[in-house]
Amino acid sequence: MSTYQDVVAAYSPYAAWALVEASGTDFAPYLGAAHLTGSGSFTYQTTGPIATSMGLGLAVGAKLATPALVSFAPPVTIETWIKLTVYPPTTTVMVWYWGNSNTNGNGVFVDTTTGNLVVYSPAATPNLINTGVALGSGWHFIQSGNTSTAGVSQLALDGVVIWQGSQPGGTIGNPNQFFFGGHSAGGANRAIELAFPALSFSYLSADRARIAFLGSSNPDAALAQTTVGGGDLLNLIYAAVHKTYV
Fold this sequence. Notes:
mainly beta; Jelly Rolls; nine-stranded antiparallel sheet; eight-stranded antiparallel sheet; about 35% strand; globular; disordered C terminus
């Protein structure tokens, strides 16, 4: 029988984390080699979004950071399950951030007034794009992708692409990092829970968003639609052509 982690593995992520640690600030990957380093206060082994899974509670201002990446550029897909302890939030909630919060890169946060997901890119005009789609209470699955440094970006919620546009990626050079949760761009955020974050150097298609979310409820059916299971061929072709010519 397939598992949700098998579906994640089918897309060959740079790293993916189960966040099952019982203590500490070092979070080991179940795929890849990059550890996440935590700062702030955490609640460990909370009830996760999938049967038998676990979540990690992040207190106000807490965050998880990837190692400084020596060479990092799009295409990239980033994903995580997230649950807000208070919804709608009373202060801005940064879901993740990529790059330099003051000059470029991008991130996703939850708006305090509407509870909507907002794409944030300080180097873009406009630098804030409200998707008009509310996150909602309980656990939800969020994915974001960039096809190239200045190319198309997209945001998916629970397996459905809810926004697509042209926003810059993290192009600040070395080092470059991803942050889950709090970041200097977000200040002191509401407490949140995270589960199964993952980072891939590959394209986020609408099919991939749908298949990844399906993996949480029917991993066998989802895996059958990936390249590992013989499906998702168009996404594989796109990735190969993009890598060669873009």
